[in-house]
Design goal:
Blueprint: H1 5-12, E1 16-20, E2 23-26, H2 29-46, H3 50-67, E3 69-72, H4 75-82, E4 91-95, H5 100-114, E5 120-124, H6 125-130, H7 135-149, E6 153-163, H8 166-171, H9 173-190, E7 194-198, H10 210-231, E8 239-243, H11 254-267, E9 277-280, H12 303-317, E10 322-324, H13 337-340, E11 345-348, H14 350-357, H15 364-377, H16 388-395, H17 404-408, H18 412-432, H19 439-445
Parallel strand pairs: 3-6, 4-5, 4-11, 5-6, 6-7, 7-8, 8-9, 9-10, 10-11
Antiparallel strand pairs: 1-2
Helix pairs in contact: 2-3, 2-7, 3-7, 5-7, 5-18, 7-9, 9-10, 10-11, 11-12
């Protein structure tokens, strides 16, 4: 760790140069990749001095942009998919909950080998909390990984499930919406130019008509879309996602989709861009359903929901199509069916977590301490009738935050095989989802203007 700003200056002297406020040049790219980027990322995450953390984050973001790895919106590609000018693949959106720098490196390595340009790194609103990764930190880790591995091109970073909670909303609407506004603004400032608004939690199926059932959903989605449009950087149209079927609930229908889209259009100003995709429920649940022995129950996924709603979405509303959540724990033999069904995007999270936690190389002693901590701190979440295996499976994601520094500090002989397993999984998914060779089509349809906040004063 750097003890002060002078240590930081000495570390990047001869490698990075700030020509004027907001303008950075990389003058020794090999040195940046070989040693400096590791130190920048680690100080950006763990340095106890806020000034050093913020300066490190700015240097990473500015360096990535200078090298051509630029935070971008996938809007242009999704508009092309809506027009039928691109397609035949499903974009993987990957929630990286822990060891984010190294895990992102694995994702980029697999992408570079397969010429993948259409991939998204995302983190959900809830994950930001329990993994202790604020948006600026998450962006730093992903962009740092892009620098380290030599990835160039648009880097799509997404806010997943920026969600309004039903209990809070119906008790105090203004308070709940204000919390959603705060995280959206923070994410935009950090470089999240893709945001999924999940107000499907506000659907009330007990109401008499589908319009009334969906009303709070499309009204909140419209309000948040307007907020995003008011705060998105000049030259960037943020890709906004909507949702009609809460994951784990009843399957979505074409009629629900039309009601939502028509209501959303009525709420938005006529000249304002709306959503680019729609998340639907097809029969999955987040993380899968653990059985008493800790294994995952098989699900019956209705691919027809994805296909039918995508057809209506592209033809009638010009959006890219449907988004599948809760897919990472599905059997491997199902993934090729997502592009066949026309799904625009698929969200993947728990499967990557499982690779880390269940890996043969993961230290047993560390795992036992994490699980003991979960049983102590999250006892109230242990539902009646759950076995210990079920409880641990559902809560172990909450160990990534409190044990973050230990996880990041695993010895190379332990970390390397774990990351290799992750890289293999990323590669398999890219192939099944048919995103190999998408670098060119992404470049054709995605504009990537560079947006950088002013450099922290301590660097000038």
């Amino acid at each position: 760790m750097w003890n002060n700003i002078e240590d930081m200056r000495q570390a990047h002297e001869g490698i990075l140069r700030i020509d004027e406020p907001g303008i950075l040049a990389v003058i020794d790219e090999p040195a940046l990749r070989e040693r400096l980027i590791d130190d920048l990322v680690r100080n950006a995450v763990f340095n106890p001095d806020e000034g050093i953390r913020n300066a490190s984050r700015w240097l990473v973001r500015a360096s990535a942009c200078a090298l051509g790895a630029i935070p971008s919106s996938i809007q242009g590609l999704y508009e092309a998919m809506g027009r039928g000018e691109a397609g035949g693949f499903t974009v993987p959106a990957m929630n990286i909950r822990g060891i984010t720098y190294d895990a992102s490196r694995a994702a980029f390595r697999a992408a570079i080998k397969r010429d993948v340009g259409a991939l998204i790194f995302e983190i959900a609103r809830s994950e930001i909390g329990y993994t202790e990764q604020r948006p600026s930190e998450y962006v730093t880790c992903v962009l740092g990984a892009a620098i380290k591995e030599g990835f160039k091109g648009p880097v799509f970073i997404q806010g997943d499930h920026f969600q309004a909670k039903a209990a809070g909303y119906f008790a105090d609407r203004d308070k709940e919406i204000e919390g959603l506004k705060v995280i959206i603004k923070e994410a935009l400032e950090a470089g999240f130019y893709n945001i999924d608004i999940d107000s499907s939690t506000l659907v009330v199926l007990e109401r008499p008509t589908e319009v009334e059932q969906q009303r709070d959903n499309f009204e909140v989605a419209a309000a948040m879309t307007e907020l995003i449009r008011a705060h998105e950087p000049e030259g960037i149209t943020v890709s906004v996602g909507g949702e009609i079927g809460e994951v784990g609930g009843k399957n979505s229908t074409v009629q629900e989709f039309r009601v939502y889209m028509d209501g959303l259009r009525e709420q938005l100003p006529p000249d304002m861009k709306g959503i680019s995709k729609i998340s639907v429920q097809t029969g999955t649940s987040h993380g899968g359903v653990p059985l008493p022995d800790g294994t995952i129950a098989k699900v019956k996924l209705d691919f027809a929901v994805l296909e039918d709603i995508t057809k209506v979405g592209t033809r009638e509303y010009g959006i890219a199509g449907t988004v599948q959540h809760g897919a990472s724990t599905l059997p491997d033999e199902l993934f090729h069916r997502f592009p066949e069904a026309g799904a625009a995007e698929v969200h993947l999270a728990t499967g990557f977590q499982n690779i880390i936690c269940d890996h043969d190389m993961f230290p047993t002693e560390l795992k036992e301490r994490i699980y003991a901590s979960l049983k102590e701190k999250h006892q109230k979440e242990w539902k009646e009738g759950q076995t210990e295996e079920q409880f641990i499976y559902k809560t172990r994601k909450k160990g990534f935050g409190p044990f973050k520094q230990e996880l990041w500090s695993l010895p190379e002989e332990i970390l390397s095989p774990i990351m290799q397993s992750l890289e293999d999984k990323f590669g398999f998914l890219y192939e099944q989802l048919r995103v190999g060779g998408t670098t060119k089509i992404v470049a054709e349809h995605v504009a990537s203007p560079i947006v950088l906040p002013q450099a922290p004063k301590v660097l000038l």
